Amino acid sequence: MIQPNILELAKQGDVEAIASLMNRHLHPKGIAAKVVFKDAFLEVTLESAQVPNQQILVAFIRKGLTALGAVSVESVKVYGQQTGKDFPAWTKEFNLGVTETELEALDDENSTSNPQVMTISINLSGDPARGLTNQDFEFIANQISADILASCTDVFIQKVSISNGSSVITKER
Known about the structure:
By secondary structure, the chain is an alpha+beta fold. The chain contains five helices and seven strands, in the order H-H-E-E-H-E-E-H-E-H-E-E. A hairpin with a 2-residue loop joins strand 1 (31-38) and strand 2. Mean pLDDT is 74; it is low at 110-115.
């Protein structure tokens, strides 16, 4: 009796075969994929020493699963997790029947009809005798804020205030 090859097993929805195909491409990049079916979703956990890149890896997973055409896979949850951490750094859900363009249109629709306010509070303290000025605090707070918001899209500055070494920046999506 001939055993079906790994691609055929993956097309049938075999999670071990799907994980194996993903890991062929991801292991050389230091990323491990674990795949399970849970609550009507195919769940893919991507784990590496650094937090995996959400944008690149979600696109990779979507493209691969779409090309695979596994009939049993309709909805997918992807988790990005740093090795040794208890919880994922990010999560993305999508349906394989919905194109990326349709998802972006939905995201745009949701962001314009339901604006979200995001507040980042950064409290910095230091010894003024060591030469830290309010301008130093402002620069540091703005750098930290820029790093935090780098992964956000369609974020607009609503208010920026800095006083006594504390920066409160409110941005609206």
